[in-house]
Structures are given as structure tokens and as C-alpha cells.
Amino acid sequence: MTTLRQALALRSWRAVRLLAGPAGEAATAALRRVELIADVRAPVPTDLQGALLAVAGEIDRDDWHLDVLIRRTAAGGAAGLLIAGTGPIGTAATVVADRLAVTILGTDDPIAGAVALRVHLAQPELERARWVTAVADAVEGAGDTVDAVVTGAAAVLDRSIWLVDSGGNVVVGPTSHPPDPPESAELAAVLAAPESATVGWVLHEVATDHPRGAYLMLRRREHDELAPARAALSVLAVAIAGRLAVQRLSSERDARQRMSLLAELLQPGGPVDPQLPRRMLEQGWRLDGYHEGIRIDVPAAADPVALRPEVLRAFADAGVPAQVVEQGAGWAAWCTFADLPAPKQREAHASAVRRVQWLLRARLPTVMGVGSLQPGAEGLVRSLGEAGDAAKIAATRTAGGHLVQVDRLGLSQLLLAWTRTETFGPAASSLLTPLQDEPALLATLSAYLEAQSSIAETAAILGVHRNTVTARISKAVELLGIDLGDPDERLAVQLACRSVLAQR
């Protein structure tokens, strides 16, 4: 938006002078267009809202027609009046202009002044067209992937652009300086920002079935107008939505193939198709070696096909190579080892799998069961079955982060059964009496012991900061007067926590 005061500061208006009416801070009328008439006697448009009325012909400063023109300018709601000449106007005209708050401007060439202002006022639309055209050309020349479209648009605009979900997680875009995740209220405010809003970025919603919603985020520069950026993002959003729809169809087709192949492998009596090994090899699945099945469950409302990339990302971030297949309300996954791993390697792998669950739980309410290592195709089927059973148990195991590993399940279940006896129950309650009014301390202590004294894992399970876990453990140890470094005391406290929590 340009005001009269801003127009007077334009280089192209250096020859324009203020003759009468509001000036300085008072000259704040918004200019949107220029109306040009031939002379002082020419008909004046009745609707002059947001307009500067320019008179091309010479005007007698003392002519009463000038007074009439000023009144008509005010009646039409014009922002100001531009006339020929820079000399002072008559006293009567000055009084009328001041009383009606009409700014009178003068220049030696009013036609040139009107044209210069029209060019300036058209700049936002020209800039908007430049941004939109640049993005449209980039989209047309980009590849079929969303990454290529976003990267191409960012390159032609020379701006950083991200595709993010509603939590601020970067889906596509530069990772060196990702945007700060906006709060939900801030996100809504930016999406609804008026053209005059002063914000650090521009957001535009992308029409998609992404489970967390998707938005384009462009980092603005200091002098970037909001309207061109929003128009460019609207074009980019349509292109992305189209490519996402194509990708969705491709993902659903691939998912059906994976699910069908897995169903054949798991069917009772074993696979009947002699080509199954070849088809599995084409999918990148191995039948030889040792397999560890993993079952991941999510609420029924979740979309396993749409969420599979997040699951794959969690496995990749945790450094766990795995096959992931949509199955029911979740996924069947498995890891394959060429040879039986050594104990240290198995322990490191188990920790990495637990990290997969922490990463997933940070975004989704997942439940995970992990089967035992089994050899060959039949072993894979058995391990996946174990993982499914373990996942059912994990659904109620909040202290373990809703994760159960079959290799540890036998002893765990045996000890848990023992802690529920009439003899152990009262003793456990007595041991933990100092924590009976401190549920947060009890929950943290239990999770800490189940997580093998890992502060980071406990923090991930409880969704709190590691410093909070450390402080709670210190306070719980102080209240109980125990030494967690003593194996006997540690086991007693762990069993007591299980017993007390199982009774609630």
C-alpha cells in the first residue's frame, strides 16, 4: 500500500510539490489508482476512493472552477489532486482544500507524474506476476518428485522453502537451517495473515491426505512483499498436491504388492507359489539368514500406508536396516542377519530397536513387539508371530515404553507373576511407602529400572527432559534410602515397582 506521503518521496516524483491540504504525517490516504482528466472543466468521476485525480491541462490559480474541482474531488473520496504548475494557488482554493482535507499537489508535467505513479502502483502486481511465473516455469521443468518441485521453486525464487507438517517437522527442504516449529496458534495466525502482516515467513496449506497436515513455509527477506510470496506458494501448493496424489496411488499399489506377498508367506501350511522366493528377492527380501520379527501397532484411525515413510525414517535414524510392510492396523517389520550375531552385537541391535520405538512414540502412539532370532523362511514366520504376541502384551506396558522383546519376556513375565503373590504384595507396598504420594517419582523410577538405568531412554519413554529424570531418580533414591548400585537392592526395588504398579 502506498500513501501520498510515500508517493512524495519517490524518485520519479521529485518534481511534485505540495500546494495545499494535509501534509507530512497527515498525508496518509492510501493510493490504489490514478484518474486523469483533460482540464478543470472536464467531468469528474463520482467514485474516486483510493484514487489520485490528475488534471492534464493548465489551471488558472484564481479560477473559481478550481474551487469546484476541489469540492468534487472531496465528494468523490479522492486521496488527492494533482494539477499543472508548482506555483501557489489562490487563497480561496487553499481554504477550501484545508477545510475539506484535500491534498493539492503540483508539477510542471502532470501527465508524466500520473504515469510515474501508475507504474509504481502496478509494481506489486508485476512482482506478483514475476513470482508466479517463475514458480510455474520451475514446476513445469521439475521432475515428478515433490523434492524436485520444492528445490526448483526455491532455486528460481532464491528463497529457502520447506514442506513441513503441522508439528514443524521438515518433510522436504534444506536441513542446515530448518524453520523453528510454529505453535498451533501462531501457525493459524500466519495462515490467516492479512496482506500487511509483518511475519518472518509465509505459510500456505497443501491439500493432502498427510496424517499430520502439510504446509509450505518460505523464509521472507526484509523487503519481500507478502502478496507475491503467498501467490507463488499457492501455485507451488497445487503442484505439490498433484504430485503427492500420484505418489499416493503409487504407494498404495506398492503396498498392495507387499501385503499380498507377506500374506502368502504367512499363510498356514506354507507358501504354495514356487515363484515366491523370486518375488521376495525382487522386493529385496531375503529368506536365508536369521530373522527378527517386529510388530508395530497404531490406533485404528491411523493410515499405515501414509505413515510408512515415518516408520522407515525412524528405522533409518536408529541405524536399523529393516523391511517394513503395512499389515492391519500397523506394520510387520523384520531385520535379517547373514550369520547369527554375537551377544554384544545382539545387545547393540536391541538398543537400536528400542530407539526406533522412542522415535516413533515421539510422533505416534505406537506399540511394539519384537520376536526372537529365527533361521530361514519358517523362522521369519515364527518370529513375526512372536512379535505379534509381544505387541499385545506391550499395549499395557507403559513402564517399558510400550515395547516388549520376546527374548526378555520369559523371565520378565515369571518375575511379574511372582510379585503378584499375597506374600510379596504387602512387602512391596511397604518398601515403596515413601513414594506413595509421589506418583511421578514412582513412574520415573520404574521406567528407569526397566530401561536398564538409561537416562535417555527413560526420558524418551516418559516424554520429559533428561535433567528431569535425573532429578527424580535422585529424589526417589534419597526418599527410599537405597543404593541402586547394589544388585540385590536394585532387583528388590524393580520387582516392588512392578508389583505396586500392577495393583493400580
TrEMBL record:
What positions does the domain CdaR GGDEF-like occupy?
Answer: 272-393
Return the InterPro entries for the record. CdaR-like_regulators (IPR051448), CdaR_GGDEF (IPR041522), PucR_C-HTH_dom (IPR025736), PucR_C-HTH_sf (IPR042070)
Give start and end of each PucR C-terminal helix-turn-helix domain. 441-498
**Pfam families in alphabetical order:** GGDEF_2, HTH_30
**Residue stretches in coiled coil:** none
Q: Which family does it belong to?
A: Belongs to the CdaR family.
Query: Protein name, please?
Result: PucR family transcriptional regulator
Name the species this protein comes from. Nakamurella aerolata
